[in-house]
């Protein structure tokens, strides 16, 4: 009886190890209940509706912000990833290969032509703290590349542009 029980436990462990594990979804693909706004306010985040579009809510803390949008079913979804607030606008982080920049204004296909400001080290640290705290409060796991530093929304290297054409 003891050997059969041990054999069953061993087989159960093998099956559990072989079962596919669900990969956690990144922040940008998740939907959240509207109650998260109260939780975030309780954690010191400033949550305000955008006057031009009341369906969009800016979540801000430490000079950084992210933009959420109400969905038809009432849930909230990330509309713009976290970025540094520059002159009231959430900048999109761009890795130009030699330096990181904050892109301002509407997104285009050509980041080299967009208005930009250099990303400073203290801004990147603030963005990292903001992103980690936001993920933690929302119950979203941090992936390895996000945990070790700032990830860029846009990456473009001018030295590679046009190769292979």
Describe the structure.
By secondary structure, the chain is an alpha+beta fold. It has one domain. Helix content is 28%, strand content 30%. The protein has helices spanning 2-18, 36-42, 121-138, 144-147, and strands at residues 31-32, 46-50, 53-61, 64-70, 76-86, 89-90, 92-95, 100-103, 116-118, 154-155. The strands form 2 sheets. Strands 1, 2, 3, 4, 5 and 6 form a 6-stranded antiparallel β-sheet that branches. A 4-stranded mixed β-sheet has the order 9-8-7-10, with no helix packed on it. The radius of gyration is 21 Å and the shape is globular.
Radius of gyration: 21 Å
Supply the number of helical segments. Answer: 4
- How large a portion of the residues is in β-strands, by DSSP E? 25-35%
* Overall tally of structural domains: 1
Q: Main beta sheet, described?
A: 6 strands, antiparallel
Mean pLDDT: 78
Order of helices and strands: HEHEEEEEEEEHHE
> pLDDT under 50 segments (min length 5)?
none
How many runs of DSSP E, i.e. beta strands? 10
Summarize the SSE layout with pairings:
Elements lengths: L1 H17 L12 E2 L3 H7 L3 E5 L2 E9 L2 E7 L5 E11 L2 E2 L1 E4 L4 E4 L12 E3 L2 H18 L5 H4 L6 E2 L10
Parallel strand pairs: 7-10
Antiparallel strand pairs: 1-5, 2-3, 3-4, 4-5, 5-6, 7-8, 8-9
